[in-house]
Amino acid sequence: MPEKVHHPLFARLYMRMTSGRKAHGEDEHRLRLLAGLSGEVIEVGAGNGLNFPLYPETVTRVIAVEPEPRLRQAAIAAAADAPVPVEVVAGVAGDLPPADESFDAGVASLVLCSVSDQSQALAELRRVIRPGGELRFYEHVVAHKPWVRRMQRAADATFWPHVGGGCHLSRDTGAAIERGGFRIESQKRFPFTPGPPVPPIPHILGVAKRP
């Protein structure tokens, strides 16, 4: 049976945090994430559709996959105002609905931290992206500093996945993307916070190619 994702409390909190994330400059990161995209795009873990208004008009179609029902309904509403055609569908990153090599690019933003099997999710993204296509990623990741890394791992082992919709702070997602058969072409690392009381968290934003 397909994996079911139901995090109503997290979904409500996430949507309430939207304005705070915007106020701290997240739209600028998302604009860089999506800049230059064209053709057909699959977005995995679309949430409540924060990327939708920022897609360039060179994109001809977006299939946005979101498993959480409350977030998916919000994404459907956001899709109506998007500057490009966006279809929101139910599904999980580890079992994507589309056929092989259906898309020119894939987008993963703040989702690879929360999937139950990161390697499977990346294998699915590689499957549905055409050879030579891109994976655009914007994710928070494990810290370089040992003491911060220890704190992240302690949070992951105790409370954080339960309040964060399955999120894990200490994943080395950049390395996982390369293990998943993508070649990272550019990557920027920076701290970002959605606002108090959450402290700055290491993030990566970049472009990887499917050979």
Would you mind describing this structure in some detail?
The protein has 211 residues and is an alpha/beta fold. The chain has a single domain (8-209), classed as Vaccinia Virus protein VP39 (Rossmann fold, 3-Layer(aba) Sandwich), CATH 3.40.50.150. The chain has helices at 8-16, 18-23, 26-34, 69-79, 118-128, 146-157, 160-163, 173-179, and strands at residues 39-44, 59-65, 86-89, 103-109, 129-140, 183-192, 201-209. The protein has a seven-stranded mixed sheet, sandwiched between helices. Strand 6 and strand 7 (201-209) form a beta hairpin. The radius of gyration is 16 Å and the shape is globular. 40% of the residues are buried.
In short:
This protein is α/β, with parallel strands linked by helices and 211 residues long. The chain has helices at residues 8-16, 18-23, 26-34, 69-79, 118-128, 146-157, 160-163, 173-179, and strands spanning 39-44, 59-65, 86-89, 103-109, 129-140, 183-192, 201-209.
CATH architecture: 3-Layer(aba) Sandwich
Q: In percent terms, what proportion of residues is strand?
A: 25-35%
Q: Counting H and I runs of at least 4 residues, what is the number of helices?
A: 8
Structural class: alpha/beta
Low-confidence residue ranges: none
Strand neighbour order, sheet with most strands: 3-2-1-4-5-7-6
Mean pLDDT score, rounded?
91
Distance between the termini: 31 Å
Main β sheet profile: 7 strands, mixed
Number of domain modules: 1
Helix content: 25-40%
Structural Rg: 16 Å
Number of strands: 7
H/E element sequence: HHHEEHEEHEHHHEE
Give the CA-based shape: globular
Q: Indicate the CATH class.
A: Alpha Beta
CATH fold name, please? Rossmann fold
What's the name of the CATH homologous superfamily? Answer: Vaccinia Virus protein VP39
